[in-house]
Every structure is written in structure tokens, then in C-alpha cells.
């Protein structure tokens, strides 16, 4: 089993309310998150029970298809989700209003690869997979900051 446990910290130049509202606009995710090739709402729209089909591009030639389900939504605080597909796992986005104009978002993502080639090559390519994940997350933070600032 190729288990990955990631924690990313985003510092966003927006209030927690503005950050949350922007995060919930799933139709705009591809506009600000490089690497997210597509997202389609399968059911529910926003909040607990919402389901999205996402395709992520790795930047080195492979893509990952996931169906993400929101399992818990606490407005102003957190979004918890599960994923199935090329990766299976669970994660969360937790918002912390740090001051009048900024928000910290902690993103936790615990996943297992299901693609046979990823599982087979994990001992060799794990550092690459981890590096690509964190690169994608940094690009997401930068894109999200531009998006919430109106750039």
C-alpha cells in the first residue's frame, strides 16, 4: 500500500468569509488552481453530500481522476471530504481567521494510490510523487491568493 499523508499551510490575503466563499465556488477552481484540468459537479452543489469529479494533471505526463465527496461542512470553519478513484482517502480544509485581512488554511490529505503502476513504483518514485503534490499545493495557494484579490 502506498499511503501518503500530506499537510499544507496556505496563508490567504482575505477574510475567512471571503476565502470560504471563494473555495465554495467549485466552478472557478480550474481558473485559479494550476494542475486541476477539470471539475464537474455530480450532485449536491455545495456543502455536505456534494460530489465532484476532478481530473488533476501532474506536470510530468500522468493525470489522476478522483470523485470527491464533501462529508462534513462547518461554515466558517472547515470542509471535510473523501475521495475515490486513482487515489482513495480523506482530507480537510480548515480555516483560521488570523486577523482582519488574512486567513490561514490548513489542508490535510491522507491518500492511497490505486493505480497499479503507482503502487508498484512507489518505493522508487515516492519522493517525486510527494514533490509534485507540494508543488501543486504551492501553485494552488498562489493562484487562490490572486483569485481572492481580484487579479
Number of domains: 1
The residue-averaged pLDDT reads: 93
Helicity range of the residues?
Answer: 25-40%
**What pattern of helices and strands is seen along the backbone?**
EHHEEEEEEH
CATH class assignment: Alpha Beta
Task: For the largest sheet, list the strands in their spatial order.
Answer: 1-7-6-5-4-3-2
Structural class: alpha+beta
- The poorly predicted ranges are none
Number of strands: 7
Shape: globular
Summary, kept brief:
The chain has a single domain (3-149), classed as START domain (Alpha-D-Glucose-1,6-Bisphosphate, Chain A, domain 4). Helices cover 30% and strands 46% of the residues. It contains 3 helices and 7 strands.
Question: What tags apply to this protein structure?
Answer:
151 residues, 46% strand, 7-stranded antiparallel β-sheet
Amino acid at each position: 500500500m502506498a499511503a501518503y499523508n500530506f499537510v499544507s499551510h496556505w496563508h490567504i490575503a482575505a477574510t475567512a468569509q471571503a476565502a470560504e466563499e471563494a473555495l465554495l465556488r467549485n466552478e472557478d477552481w480550474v481558473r485559479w488552481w494550476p494542475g486541476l484540468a477539470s471539475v464537474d459537479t455530480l450532485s449536491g452543489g455545495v456543502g455536505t453530500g456534494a460530489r465532484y469529479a476532478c481530473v488533476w494533471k501532474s506536470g510530468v505526463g500522468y493525470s489522476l481522476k478522483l470523485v470527491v465527496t464533501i462529508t462534513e461542512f462547518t461554515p466558517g470553519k472547515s470542509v471535510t471530504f473523501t475521495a475515490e478513484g486513482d487515489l482513495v482517502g480523506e482530507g480537510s480544509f480548515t480555516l483560521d481567521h488570523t486577523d482582519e485581512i488574512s486567513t490561514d488554511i490548513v489542508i490535510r490529505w491522507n491518500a492511497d494510490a490505486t493505480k497499479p503502476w503507482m503502487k508498484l513504483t512507489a518505493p522508487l518514485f515516492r519522493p517525486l510523487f510527494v514533490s509534485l503534490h507540494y508543488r501543486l499545493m504551492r501553485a494552488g495557494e498562489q493562484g487562490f491568493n490572486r483569485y481572492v484579490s481580484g487579479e
